[in-house]
Amino acid sequence: MSDPDLKPLLTRIADALEGLQPATLPPADLASADAFVWHAQGSRLQPVPDVAHVDLALLVGIDRVRDTLLDNTRRFTMGHAANNALLWGARGMGKSSLVKAVHAAINKETPGALVLVEIHREDIPTLPHLLTVLAAAPRRCILFCDDLSFDTADTSYKSLKAVLEGGLEGRPANVIFYATSNRRHLMPRDMIENERSTAINPSESVEEKVSLSDRFGLWLGFHSCNQEEYLAMIAGYVGELGLRMDADQLHAEAIEWSMTRGARSGRVAWQFIQDLAGRQGKSV
Question: Which of 38, 68, 240, 283 has the fewest CB atoms within 10 Å around its CB?
């Protein structure tokens, strides 16, 4: 093959190789909103103009974890050392609500101080790419994953471990990671027990699985509320929204509502309040 024949071929090969290179993304524009959702397909941050959140004062019965997360977030906002946080425990007790409420409270104190970026569980494998995007941004960011957990065949937890702690680059200074989960170790107990019973070296295998949760410096536990706390949540919502009902009747209806659902929680309390407000012709 002569030189003139090789030139077009080499040009096509060079063009093809350039096409395989990942596109260089421009720095993220985080000035348009205080909250975004990461869409892995297309590598874009979608602004969320109005975040659905409740006022921090309405989160009753979780005072200790509320204050701990607020203090940690405030230190991060000021540029001081702060920890990644795992909010785990009973469903419906305000884990994700607390993250959004803390974000709103900090931005109320210092407008524009924090960006909340939500990444969906299924997009965790793209987390290193998202961190690269956020690292170039001028604002401080809470990276938030709701209902984070891993199943038996899922190995993406390994990339998350490296991102949170232990990787060469580590977590960018302007990013902190908050996650919620019903599981303290982010994995089902039967998965951990199966590893213990079938592995050649059971302790090492289990250590690898549970060490992911160790990457979170803060473990904030949420537990089912008692009836007194449940009724306090109801009373707080009633006062905030200006609803009217005799106290004894309110308590009786709220207790009946929780019994029909077989649980007492912040979520059940809010669902009762929505029903009550609707009956009184009010929106919430």
Answer: 283
